[in-house]
Amino acid sequence: MSAEGSTSRFHVPGKTRWRRFAIVAVPAVAIAGVLVGLTAEGAIASSISVSGEEYTVKASQLSGTGFEQFGSEVSNASGPQPVIVSAINKAQLTNLCQSVTIGPVTLRLTAGDAGTPASADNLIVDASGQTGSVATFTNISIGDDAGTLTEDPGTTGAAGSFGEQADTVTIDNLNQDTWLTTAGTFTLPDLRLGFGGGC
């Protein structure tokens, strides 16, 4: 057998067989896109892992437009933790304070206490508890299917579970124990971060 014949049977290193790559990659990308879309729409649950430390969030007033709330869970090293998910399209927090104890020290953040409130777009909070001196809602609907909530920011819970939504929300003297906070944009005027006492 000639040298030319012997090398023709072997794949030449450094070349990609694009047709074979496309056959494998295109369906995988399509499936991933469908899963991401279903997760965003709340049709399937996303698994969120959080640290083992809850933190405290306080504000003299929280006000927002586009409010949704439903039950869910997050996971940490101790296992699943039940949470109240509160989603607000546009939120303002006056005299915001957040604190978390890490070992022997407490990390404390304050903002929005010099005349301009802290603000957030697409604010989503996973909390284990929430209190306030007065809570006011406009056009509230209680007992909705959490999978069919329609207020912006468009967050939904598990289909068939309890949910509520309102056009606006105002909570005075907010105090909540929180596992996770996410936001599209979080603006913190007069930010101060350091070690010290809790909120």
Would you give an account of this structure?
This protein has 199 residues and is mainly beta. It has 2 domains: 3-40, no CATH class; 55-195, no CATH class. It contains 2 helices and 10 strands. Strands 1, 2, 3, 4, 5, 6, 7, 8, 9 and 10 form a 10-stranded antiparallel beta sheet that branches. The longest helix has 23 residues, at 18-40. The protein starts with a helix and ends with a strand. The model is unreliable at 1-11 and 24-46 (pLDDT under 50).
Outline of the structure:
This protein is mainly beta.
Output the helix-strand order.
HHEEEEEEEEEE
Tally of individual domains: 2
**Mind summarizing the main beta sheet?**
10 strands, antiparallel
What class do helices, strands and sheet pairing give?
mainly beta
| Cα radius of gyration in angstroms | 24 Å
Spans of at least 5 consecutive residues with low confidence:
1-11, 24-46
Number of continuous helical runs: 2
Distance between the termini: 83 Å
- By DSSP, the count of extended strands is 10
Overall, the morphology is globular
Percent of residues in helical segments? 10-25%
Instruction: Give the DSSP E fraction (strand runs of 2 or more residues).
Output: over 45%
User: pLDDT average, as an integer?
Assistant: 82
